[in-house]
Write the structure tokens for this entry.
Amino acid sequence: MTKTELEAFLAVLQYGSISAAAERLFITQPAMSRRMKSMEEELGYSLFERGRGQRSVELTENGKEFVPVAERLLTLYREAEEIPRRKKSPLLRVSTVNSIAFYLMPAVLKEMMSARDTCSIEFKTGRSSDIYGYVENGSVDVALVSDLLNSRRIVPFPVFREPFVFAGGESWRETGRVTPDMLDPEEQIRLPWNPEYDIWHSRWFPLDANPSLTADKMEFLEYFLNGKKWAVIPLLVARRFKRQDVWICPMEGGPEDMTIYGLTKENRMDDQIRRFFQCVREELQMIDGIELFSGR
């Protein structure tokens, strides 16, 4: 059953007769009748009641049930014809560690999505070790991680560096300055940042000291920073705190600045990936204390 036959059938219904439909489609009445006959032979049943002197068309019961089917078939034909003309948005699959996901990516992804030649974006978070695997197996195109790991197929490259800062409850504000020897490890809210942070932590605090809270999610961190509770956190995380009574300050003798690395499979760098890193840099260059690396 062809598209022209379906159009002819629906035109007969719209204009009320075979002759009127033929005129609107710029074909002869015999040609229109042949199209209707061809459809009926293919379907195996009559679509129209036929009688002498009958000017307007009247559908058989089968013909009435076929009307919505014909409409759907014609829609499918037209959708099929549109496939080569349909502009497909490229897909960019992005993954980052949590600290980047919640405190940097909203602005970056919003900027990418607002571009006229935008791409479709899939985004997910994970631990650095998991994200290396995502990039290696091809399920992620570009990523930002906080750990420098060995990989045969990926060459990590530094994108930016951010300092760690101190965050504490209101009672810390009176101290004016903070050094590691002032901190009680049992008042700590501890989160996993990167290996360099762990090295710093083990140098200053006993391994058997139990933090007040250990968590792997940082979205609710600020809600636990009351009284003498404290945490050492990356600058980007601190900038997103909404509570005014959480005291943020630089830390003397704190952990080594955290470097965030970019990952792409086999050094892939197409237009969408370049656009991603451009948006990251544009967002970060407005923040004091962030060091951007040149290159990609």
The domain at 91-158+260-292 is CATH 3.40.190.10 (D-Maltodextrin-Binding Protein; domain 2). The chain has three domains: 3-85, 91-158+260-292, 164-250. Residues 76 and 96 are 40 Å apart (CA to CA).
